[in-house]
Every structure is written in structure tokens, then in C-alpha cells.
Amino acid sequence: MKKLSLYLVLLAIIAQSCTPSSTETEVKTTAAQIELRVSNYPLQFLAETIAGSDATVKRIRNSETLPVDSITAIQQAGLIFINGATYEKWTMNVSLDEQKIINTTQAFESEYLSSGETFTHSHGDEAAHSHEGTAYMAWLELGLFNQQALAIKDALVKTYPNQKATFEANYSELSKNLMELHEQFLAMAPAAKQLNFAFSHPVYQYFGQSYGLSGESFHWEPSDEMDASHEADFKELNEIKKIDFLVWEGEPSAETRQTLEGWGAKSIVINPSWGPSDAGDYLETMKKNLEELKVIQD
Amino acid sequence: MKDSLFLAWKYLQFNTGKTLILIFSVSLVLFIPMGLNLLTNQGAKSLTERAEATPLLVGALGSPTDLNLSTLYFKAPKSDQIPYSEVQAIQSENLALPIPLNLQYSVKTQPIVGTGLSYLDLRNLKVAEGRPFATLGECVLGSEAAEILGVRVGESVISSPAGAFDIAGSFPLKMPVVGILAPNGTADDQAVFTDVKTTWVISGIAHGHDAINEDTADSLLLSKGENQAVASAAILSYTEITPENIASFHFHGNSADFPIDAIIAVPKDKKSELMLRGRYEAEGLGVQMLVPSEVMEELLATVLSVRNLIIAAALIIGIATLIILGLVFKLSIRLRAGEIQTMKKMGAASGKIREVLALEILITLSISIGLSLGYTLILNQFGLPLITSFLS
Predict the structure, then answer these.
(1) Is the ipTM of this complex over 0.85?
(2) Beta bridge partners of A35
(3) Do A93 and B243 touch (CB under 8 A)?
């Protein structure tokens, strides 16, 4: 009888140890099963760097309407990273699981800058109102961009906790690179504040505020030829405050550079990183932007 | 025994009318408490299951029962709506998944449920035909809603005005049906599901129209300044959202202020649930959070106590009926004195006569019990759906 009891106890212990615990039966997500959507290239860079190259990261076209096929594909993604700050035109027109949408600029939404007055409308039964638009290109300011990276990392860790170590390591490396570059840009600020800038487009609000570049914006394309209307716009601003540098999004022609130098302003190119550039990925593009900016020290 | 049974059966057969009356009256007396018990248990089970599948509810201050039943069965609660900022508040707490519900509108007799895709996941609602809604304006129908409205995937439904005297209060919107859900056996089968933003279009908070800018004709505007314009009623809103005009749809105001009727909060775990409930109970946030299963339990306790009273009354009536039945049999035996005498003269012992009479009663009661069980089985199968369709 005693032997039988002993055998039964042993059997029970063996049976218990063979029964998988709830954590052992949990399906562990591998990197290859991570499917992410992002709303622009800089976020794609962040997501790919932090999640690793095995994760699938796809960009959502930023238009007011998205094809239904795209929306149903986006609905299947594990996480959807958006820029916020009014960048995305499609968010109010589509049905997505709100839990999956991560606004990467939400942590600093109190620091959003204005993009200037916009034309608004109201209807007869509402009070008339106007308001300023919101500048969204926070990704050009590396300190803020690092915060966007942090938001992505935190969301990935929360959603795929078994990959936490990978995400933390990747983020740590990335953050170190971003902040080092940020410090180098900040070091340019004292020199930049001594000068007056104009911008080809109003896309440098955050960049300008942090790195000391202040000035007004035109709506000029790098391919524009400097004609009489350009000259009139330039001179109007130049009379208020002499323009030392014109900041372009892309390389202007040699003639444009020459014309502007004739008007008293030098041209520099700060690539807004809408996509990968000739220099390479986002980080390489920003390094090239830094080199370009160093011209102001001369 | 067999011969006694034969005699008893033949007597009952001969007096068909009397036998049938006795059988049906006894079966009904037995059925009433059983049927009532069954119906209330079935109803309670259905209500309880639905409530238990809904972890937490947030809504305006007021009657918890009204909020509970309205939200679970898609009737607009009688209390005020709450702002969408409550959804954002729960989201920022990171303790639960908030699922908004806007229940103000309907398509004819079928309620429109403005919510998110998470609701379909919560209720495990599968799309049997088509796909879930993807863009503003699209809708997905419950299986019964599709049948009642007579629409298929690819067709459209139009939202009904909020009320006969509220013609200008909401904007009838033509919504394409992109999916039909598999039957679920719950109130979800009756609903028209769409994104909560679509219900804001119906309410007029969002709309689409031709662009209003610096070039808009003055005849369409009440006023125009350097940076803003006030549109007149001549600017007509679109009554249908199409791929061609969806880009023109926009919202006026801050989404945090947009109205909803309730929020289903799905906590991450028990600790998160307790923290969330504690926050809402302690901080007087201007909204209430309730646990649907607890509110339902209280409601059912009231219903069941009423049921118990009715069953007790039915039992008393049943006992009275059985006493009267006993009297009927006794009187019947007296009336059959001649018949009983004949049996004695034929050589039947007193015991045998009592056996025959007892078997008559037993057969009557057995058939009555059998019938009442039969009624109960039929009620079990068809009762609740019949009552639901009768009430609706």
C-alpha cells in the first residue's frame, strides 16, 4: 500500500511537470512576424532600425483617400506609427483599431509650432473662427526625433515583449547616434543666431527654432528660375532684414545660386528627408545637412 | 393489473370530454410554474451572458440600469451623452482598451452602432460576407438586420431622421453595406455597425461639401475675411460619402468634445480593472463606471423575486386545483355508484375496484404531466425567440 501511494505521488509530480504552463504555451512573436505601418520615411527609418531588419515595415501614402485594399492591409498590421501634428491627411477618413495607432509626437504636443495662418471656414450657425496650422516636421529636430524613436520603442516593447532586449539595444544605439548629431547641430546655433535666413518652404520650423535659424519662408522650388516675381519677394523680405542665407530643400541650379549671390544671399541645402537621399538613409542625410550648415561658420 | 388498466383506460376513453378537460387543466396548472421558471432562467442566462461579456461600462451619470440595458441592447440611453475625451482619458491611462459607442441613430427599425473595429473583436463577430468597414461612411450589418432591411453586400442603407420632430437635427446618410456578420444569437445580429466617426457625420459634426476658399463666390457665403469665411446654407453637404468626395469630409471642432453614449472598457488584467474602477469611484469625474454583470445581477434579483412570488401564487393555485380535482373524482365516484355496484355484483373485490379508480386518476395525471413537460420542451426551444419577436 505504501509503495502504491509513493508511485501515485511520483506519477502526479511527473504529470504536473509535463503539463505546459500558460507561459510555455504562449505563442512567441518572432521578428519576422512583426508587421508595422508608418506614415512617412523618417518613421520608417526609426521602425526598421529599432524593430530590426526582419520586421516588415511599410509606408502609408499620405493622401486624403486611401484605397480600400490598402486600408484592409493596414488593419492587419501589428502597430501603426503616425507622425501626428496634423501630418496625416487620412486618419479621420479610415477605420482602424485606435489601440494600434501610435502618435509618435504626442509626448511633445504642447511644444507644437505653428505653420502660420491658414484659410478656414465655418458655417452660419457656428462662430466664425480662424486658426493657425500646425507644423509637423519635427523629425528635422534630432532631439524631438529621438522622442519619436522612444515612442516607437516603447510601443514595440509593449506589444512584443519577448523581443524587448532587441528593441532596447537597437534603440540605445540609435539614440546615441541621434543625440550626438543633435549636439553637433546645437553647437551651430550661436553662429546661426548671428545670421538671418530665408527658407524656400515653410518646413524648417522645429529645425530653425532649436538650431538658431530664424527667418521667413517663401514657396519656391529648387527648379525655379529666379525671375522678377522671385526678385520682388526676395527684396521685400530683404528690406526688413538682410537675408544672409537661403535654405533650400533640394539643390538649386548654378544660375539660381549665382542670382541669389548677386542679391546678397548664399544658398545652402538642408534636405528635409522626405525619403532616402543620395547620401543614404535618414542619419546619413542629416550628417550631410550638418556639413552643409557648417558653411555658415565661414 | 393489466385488466384493471384496461378497465380504467376504457372508462376514460368513453368519457372523452371529461377526461380531456381534466388532462388539459391539470397540465396547464403544472406547466405554469415550470414554464415561468424556464423563461425567466433563459432570459436571465441570456442577460447575464451578455453582461459578463462586457467588462466595464462608462457613461453619463444617471441610472446604472438604464445605461447598462441601453448600451448592451443598443438603445440610446436617456441620460446625456459624454465627450470623446473620456475615451482618450482611458487610453492615456493605459489600463484598458476603450471602445466608444454612439447609439443615437437607426436605419428604420435597426439601431446604428457607431463604434470601432475593436468592438467586433470583443464580441467575436465574424464577417460572413464581404469585409469589415474600412472608410468613413461604410457599414457592416448583423445577420438579422440584413434580413429585415432586405439588403446585401454592395447595396446601401440610409440613416433615419433622429425623430419625427427633429428633421434638421441629423443628416440622413447613405451608407454602403460592405459586410454582413455571421449570426451570433445576440443583440448584435440586429445592429448596423459603422465607425463612430460616421455617426458624427450623421449628427452633422462632420460633413463634406465643395471647397470653401478665397475663390468661393460671395453668393455662397455670409461673410469672408482674409483668413476665414462663414458659409451660408447655400453650401450643401453631401448626403453620401464616395471615393470621389471623401477627401472633402472634415470635422468642425475638437474631436475631444464630440459626443458618444457610452464606452466599453476592456481592462488588461484584474489589477488594471481595480485601479480603473477605483479612479472613477474616487475622483467624481462627472461620468460613472459600472460593472454590467453586477448591475444585471441586481436587476435579475428583483425580477427573480417577482418570479418567485408568481410561482408561489401558481403553486397555491395548483394545490387548490388539485384539491378541486380530488373533489371532482370523489363526486364522480358517487355518481358512479350504480357502476361500482355492478362491478361488485360481477365479482370484483373492493381492492380491485379501488385499483381501477386509482388507475384512472394515475393515467389522467400521467398524461397531464407528460403534456406539461411537452409544453415546457416547446417553450425551451421556441419560447424566448417568439417572445422577443413579439415584444419587438
Answers:
(1) no
(2) A56
(3) no
